[in-house]
UniProtKB/TrEMBL annotation:
Stretches assigned to the Wall-associated receptor kinase C-terminal domain: 213-250
Organism, as annotated: Citrus x changshan-huyou
EC number: 2.7.11.1
GO cellular component annotations of the record: membrane
Main location per the UniProt record: membrane
Subcellular location: Membrane
Keyword Lipid biosynthesis on entry: no
Superkingdom, natural source: Eukaryota
Pfam families xrefs: GUB_WAK_bind, WAK_assoc
The name this protein goes by in its record: non-specific serine/threonine protein kinase
GO molecular function: polysaccharide binding; protein serine/threonine kinase activity
């Protein structure tokens, strides 16, 4: 038996109208991984996800990058328990490679909410004798577990050149991020720097065994994310008003928690 053409045609019309009337559903907008790095609150790689204070700090293009005014730095790991994010700047000098210096610059917001951790030490190398950190600001340099400049110049292939060229040991300085933040390398008058993480237990360990990079220590904004995640939602924010929003499903966002919209 054949359906009369008119019935088929009206079915098609009804179907078309129904399909057009359906709201356009978007899939969950927050990716929870970038490669093998989990992305959780307060971070987000899709706009509207995570805490608004951390908006546009990460991008995920094959690898995860931390974006600052001085460039994108590859994220090595995020420790959500210790609230740290470790980045590595491939343009930075380390014990094994000497590269032209390149300031690490963060925005004011970044410096405020995720400054380098206390166990990240910056080593300013090959400083001129006129450097402020050897004169007026010499108290910014500290005793780094008894390590010396000569240890770096002598123990690292990359830094041996400082020793060779000057036939002596040019000064160096172990300091915290604030020194680098407030004075650019040009003002500091040191030709290179490197930074070392996890510095709490480096007494007696030579520079070949240090871990180079920058560890940022972030704080969680107090936006009521717990309530949202306990209700099964994902914390995000309204991209226009920047107000916190609880993302409940692909078709429903609540202001505070899923199940209630008040
Ligand atoms: C929910 O919020 C996200 C992030 O701001 C947004 O991308 C999405 O379009 C919103 N969905 C609805 C249904 O409003
Ligand atoms: C992400 O950051 C990296 C490093 O700065 C850059 O090369 C890449 O183009 C950025 N990707 C997007 C999608 O912005
Ligand atoms: C060390 O610093 C001096 C300036 O104080 C500079 O002329 C020299 O090129 C630097 N050495 C290297 C290997 O960059
Ligand atoms: C630096 O600290 C070490 C202990 O970590 C100590 O043995 C050494 O004497 C100190 N050096 C100076 C110059 O204060």
């Amino acid at each position: 038996m054949q359906f009369p053409l008119s019935i088929i045609s009206s079915l098609v019309t009804v179907l078309t109208i129904t399909l057009q009337a359906l709201p356009i559903f978007t899939l969950s907008t927050c990716r929870s991984f970038c490669g093998n790095i989990p992305i959780k609150y307060p971070f987000g790689i899709d706009d509207g996800c995570g805490a608004v204070q951390f908006r546009q700090m990460l991008n995920c293009s094959a690898d995860l990058f931390f974006i600052t005014p001085s460039g994108g730095y590859k994220v090595q790991s995020i420790d959500y328990n210790k609230k740290t994010l470790t980045v590595y700047d491939p343009a930075m000098s380390t014990c094994s490679i000497l590269q032209p210096h390149h300031d690490f610059i963060m925005t004011d917001i970044q410096s405020a909410i995720m400054p380098p951790s206390a166990d990240t030490v910056f080593a300013l190398l090959n400083c001129s004798i006129d450097s402020p950190v050897l004169n007026h600001y010499k108290n910014l340099c500290f005793n780094f577990s008894g390590h010396s400049c000569d240890e770096l110049y002598g123990g690292c292939n990359a830094f041996r050149v400082f020793h060779l060229l000057s036939n002596s040991s040019p000064p160096c300085c172990f300091t915290g991020y604030d020194t680098v933040r407030y004075m650019s390398m040009n003002i500091l008058d040191c030709s290179h720097y490197t930074s070392i993480i996890n510095t709490d237990n480096l007494k007696g360990l030579g520079p070949l065994d240090w871990v180079y990079g920058i560890k940022l220590s972030y704080s969680l904004p107090d936006t009521g994310c717990e309530r949202c995640s306990e209700s099964g939602g994902t914390c995000g924010f309204d991209t226009e008003t920047q107000g916190m929003m609880c993302l409940c499903s692909s078709s429903f966002n609540a202001t505070r928690e899923c199940g209630k919209n008040c």
